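Could someone model coenzyme A with this protein?
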Amino acid sequence: MFPELNTSRLTLRQFRQDDLEPICENINNFEVSKMLTVVPYPYTKADGEWWLNHISETPLTQETNWAIESELGFAGVITIRIGESGVPLIGYWLGQPFWGKGYMSEATEAVVNYCFETLGVTKVTSGAFEENDGSLNVLAKNGFQTVGTQPEKSRARGEEDITLINVELTRDLWEAMRAVAV
Ligand SMILES: CC(C)(COP(=O)(O)OP(=O)(O)OC[C@H]1O[C@@H](n2cnc3c(N)ncnc32)[C@H](O)[C@@H]1OP(=O)(O)O)[C@@H](O)C(=O)NCCC(=O)NCCS
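Reply:
Sure, complex below.
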């Protein structure tokens, strides 16, 4: 069963076919795709159809993609990919009209809690380009710590190498943060 998650303002839900239009509308924006590794720009309807099909064919144990539903409707995506190591890698994007409202900090907290509480993992990882202050702030607010850097490409930008900052949150730190928050 799909693990729908609720936060105070958001519902993280399963994708539907009628998300195609808002996905394309929000991600066909270079300001969004230039911060992502695998998303093309421009982004066509065929790209969106391919992606919805990919989601429906991929087991949740390998990849879980949540549609972020705000008070104003579809706002973006948050994903975990679980590799052979069993460690989830979080990725996300919001349409530009939804930036700066604390939505991604809220969505990330819910997905991190899901990873530790429901999946029972020992750590969660993520990463962001060094110029992506917004994403690095989301990750830092949720307790992620830098563990290294690597050169990475953004499909939307082409062959240019960009420094990716790798981060992780261990279960020990997550538990310590929760103990302080209570
Ligand atoms: C990065 C992104 C997910 C941030 O989401 P968001 O919901 O706007 O982030 P939040 O509102 O939760 O902000 C978290 C913190 O970062 C700060 N912040 C947000 N955007 C910022 C920016 N562009 N520059 C500097 N700080 C920023 C916020 O002020 C907030 O700090 P505060 O709690 O101290 O006030 C969103 O801008 C986005 O989707 N960008 C394009 C795609 C992308 O970068 N995806 C991530 C790839 S790693």
